[in-house]
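Async update (no meeting this week)

Hi team, since we skipped the sync, here's where things stand on the single-chain job. The sequence we agreed to prioritize is pasted below, unchanged from the tracker. I ran it this morning and attached the output directly underneath so nobody has to dig for it. Comments welcome in thread, and please keep replies under the output.
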Amino acid sequence: PATWLATRLRRAKSDLRHGFSPTRLREHGSKLWLGVAKATLALTIFLALSCIEGERRPRASSVISLPSCIQGLMTAVYGLVAHSFALLSPDPTTLSSGFLVIVGAYPGGSTGKCFQAITLGGFGLALGVLVYTILGFLGECTRYLVVEAVSLNEALPPTAHAPTAQGFVFAAWVYLAALVRFGGPKYISFYLYGVLFSFNGIYRTITTGEFRRELLLADFIAYAWGIAIALGVNVLVFPTTAEEQLRGLLVTSLQHVATLAHLTCKTFARELDAEESEVRQVLAKSLRSDYLALDAQLDEMKYELAVSKYSLRHFREMIGAVQALQQ
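Output:
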């Protein structure tokens, strides 16, 4: 019908040409702002914990509007968190690295996307710990070799080091991690965690002049705190599943295919005006992004527990049918 087509054309034009317009944000702003709010909450929690001093305890409040039991519980939780967070980090200055960890874990995304980022980031972090250790030992060994070689001529300062070997190893590791990163956007956390953590192996040996295992532990604890906070916010604060997003994307993709098919028929009939021709070109480009987005959403579903009557195989078949229409 003409009314249906006009409505679809207006909606398609608004969605595709003005994806971040005020109208678009009003219609779909709840999910967008929820993701931003969850990510901000995770960063705020980590910042608050980082600013807590272990020796400080909250004073008793003079306000008696809350029951004393609730005040006591809040005081106990505050003291336990502050005391634990202060003791678990041998070097509090390393806690700042946890902010990038939270960003790379996508706490505002779906549970599948968060689990995927943390899983792949965990592999990158494990390799980063290995490279960190190698770089630390190389910095320490090369410093001793240089000191021994020139001990007869002059005494080197305690922070003297020869970073050539570290540079070669770190460059090789960055190159290999970049090859993995080129596999797709889902490997961003792998690259981020692995490269940034391993770089500390060079930075620590330069600043301290030696490889200190307690600093390695402090850096790892900061990353662990970031991952735990991001995962907790993602799961406990208004969680959304990748399956829910995939269902909506399937409906949107079918609507794009239906609108484009109708416009293509009008093109062959030479009944297409200038505005409809513009929408058809935009829809043709949108089908390519929909094709890749369906694969990405299906990949995220593999990392979360399915609670619906449809299995992963059913969704794979549905996506295959939609992608066949898109081609």
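Quick observations from my side:
The CA atoms of residues 43 and 321 lie 40 Å apart.
The radius of gyration is 27 Å.
Reply here if anything looks off.
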